[in-house]
Specification:
Layout: E1 2-9, E2 14-20, E3 25-31, H1 41-56, E4 62-70, H2 78-83, E5 89-91, H3 94-100, E6 109-114, E7 118-124, E8 127-133, H4 145-160, H5 169-177, H6 185-192, H7 196-200, H8 203-211, H9 215-236, E9 247-251, H10 260-272, E10 277-279, H11 285-300
Parallel strand pairs: 1-4, 4-5, 6-9, 9-10
Antiparallel strand pairs: 1-2, 2-3, 6-7, 7-8
Helix pairs in contact: 4-5, 4-8, 4-9, 8-9, 9-10
Length: about 300
């Protein structure tokens, strides 16, 4: 048996998928965060090893090719290729992986990624022609889980000391970060340090509060989704006609499920592109990476 390996390293977790030559998923496993802008090379390697070893456990097969995507700074793949027997390696753009994860191998339209971070790309006839965003937590990541979580936490501390509206996010922050007094967040954030993916996880609490009809949380989700939609409109401008029908792939944790965030994004984007068709993932990102690698491997064969 011969297999294809797809590895996807994100800001929160790493996924690894193993496919047979026909594209059937044989195994899947996960590791920790892998974005070198926010974790060390040692942490990234540990994340890769955990995902890779978990997926390949019990599989004795020749690796035909490796497909890989990693958020942030380029990773060191030499040791990993040696571990796999030095197969051909195919880098895959994060947004192409996102588009293919919706079930379309031929990319034409927009890919909007709103996970730990955020990035948007336009594909025209399978060619990547424009990307906006992807600047990271300090310079961008608008509409990402990190962005939503940070706005949620700021709303909580404003409510705590009387500057903002009452909100369930106060109790959510106390429970999530394990503090009684929100003043305890100051040494936690500035002295001990809170990782980017840990803070991004607080976005789930903002979504939960919004579902409980918390007005502050609802306002945050709508505002951040509309900001991301405006960025997507800017990315599409000049490449798609306002009355053209094209696909918009919505991927990443912020688009998971029929949430207020997703509804607000679609509503705002549709005001500029009323015939856009929205799609969400049908497969895990690492599976999409592996399928892209399989296609490129077959195309490279004589």
């Amino acid at each position: 048996m011969r297999v294809i390996v797809g590895l996807e390293g994100g800001g929160t977790k790493t996924g690894c998928a193993v496919l047979d030559e026909g594209g059937k998923v044989l195994a899947y496993a996960e590791g920790g965060p892998a974005n070198l802008n926010f974790v060390s090379e040692a942490v990234q390697r540990k994340s890769f090893e955990k995902a890779l070893e978990g997926a390949l456990q019990g599989i004795e097969a020749t690796v035909l090719a490796l497909g890989y995507t990693v958020a942030g700074t380029r990773a060191n793949w030499e040791w990993l290729l040696q571990r796999l027997g030095n197969p051909p390696a195919f880098p895959v753009e994060e947004t192409r992986m996102a588009f293919v994860s919706t079930g379309r191998m031929y990319a034409h339209g927009l890919a909007v990624v709103a996970g730990t971070g955020s990035v948007i790309s336009v594909f025209v006839h399978d060619e990547l022609v424009r990307t906006v965003g992807g600047w990271g937590a300090l310079l961008g990541d608008e509409g990402s889980a990190y962005d939503v979580a940070l706005h949620g936490l700021r709303a909580a501390v404003r409510a705590w000391d009387g500057r903002g509206f009452p909100t369930k996010l106060v109790g959510a922050a106390r429970a999530y970060f394990g503090v009684q007094d929100l003043q305890e967040l100051i040494p936690l954030f500035y002295q001990k340090g809170v990782s980017r993916h840990q803070l991004a996880g607080f976005a789930r609490k903002v979504i939960q509060a919004a579902k409980q009809r918390d007005m502050v949380a609802q306002h945050i989700l709508i505002a951040r989704a509309e900001w991301l939609a405006r960025d997507a409109i800017a990315c599409a401008r000049g490449l798609f006609d306002p009355h053209e029908a094209f696909m918009v792939a919505l991927t990443g944790g912020m688009f998971r499920g029929r949430t207020l965030f997703r509804a607000a994004f679609e509503r705002r984007f549709s005001r500029s592109y009323p015939h856009a068709r929205f799609r969400t993932p049908r497969m895990k990102p690492a599976v999409a990476v592996a399928r892209i690698a399989l296609r490129r491997y077959k195309q490279s064969e004589p």
